[in-house]
Amino acid sequence: MSDQNITFLSDGLKIQGTVGLPEGLKPGEKRPAFMVLHGFGSTRNAGNVLGPCAMLNRMGYVTLRFDMRGCGDSQGLKGHLICLEQVADTRNALTFLQGHEHVDPARIGVMGSSFGAAVSVYTAGVDERVACCVSASGWGNGETKFMGQHTGPGEYEAFLKMLEDGKAHKAKTGEPLWVPRYAIVPIPQHLRGHVVEKSSNQMTADTAQSMFDFRAEDVIANIAPRPCLLLHSAVDSVTPTQQTLDMFARSKPPTEMHLFSGTDHFMFAEKNERVHTVVSEWLAEFFPVHGEGRKLADDHH
What 3-state class would DSSP assign to 138? Predict the structure, then answer.
């Protein structure tokens, strides 16, 4: 396995990434590839990015992990994370990968956790070049997600006031209102160790508004007949499990969904063998390294 640090442009911004190559590649050989997306304000070096990349490389896939604009080492206003801009970054990453000497341009999938899962589903739903999609701990409706995350007395009302304050501040000053990251997405203290170095701790209120407005569930049906795998913990301390249930209800075959006990929000970073087994077996059937995978027409009866 070897890593190549790369850059590509997205809307004129320099995006920093790392391509992971599997062992045993022959000169000129092309393999299927995955873009693996990081979560909310995180970086390409998060555990729930490095873990899946290592697994995929061992299985024989090429991987690309990258810092979204405004995150990690990429250009862009730090902490200003706009969902549709992350979709644009992912589509530009796909264009970059299609030109890589070791990548089959027709067989590039996307995989993400949490915020990255929502961006993965949305990107696959609007860009037919994405060959398959894996979503872990994702969400499909920003408004209902936030309602499920701010459940204490007065918390959701305070969150909505923050959105209004952000709009008023920007209208008055022309500048974004800065707020703490945990005011947008609360994470229990026992899980905060998963928030890696170079993560953004201050975010713009525009970030929260863009997430509130984001609806991956509106486009998930467009992914079919390409394969899609939805994963969630049965009990998730950050993103309500209902988000994935609702996305699955709006999806079309051959989408599959798996709920796991014994995991939490950062399931890909928790080294849970059952999660890795489900993903690897699903890939072997629907998106194998060699061959086309199971004919999907059988799923439409």
Answer: coil
Asked if pLDDT for residue 183 goes beyond 60, the answer is: yes
Q: Is 169 exposed, middle or buried (0-12, 13-18, 19+ CB in 10 A)?
A: middle
Confirm whether 26 is domain-assigned: yes
Give the closest residue to 39 by CA, choosing from 85, 62, 71. 71
CATH assignment of the domain containing 239: 3.40.50.1820
How many angstroms separate the Cα of 150 from the Cα of each of 147, 159, 186, 228, 261? 6, 8, 8, 29, 23
Q: What's the DSSP call for residue 301?
A: -
Q: Tell me the whole-structure pTM to 2 decimals.
A: 0.94
Q: Identify whether 179 is part of a domain.
A: no
CA distance 94 to 91: 5
197 sits in the region (left: phi over 0; alpha: psi -120 to 50; else beta) called: beta
Q: What is the pLDDT of residue 295?
A: 53
Domain presence at residue 172: no
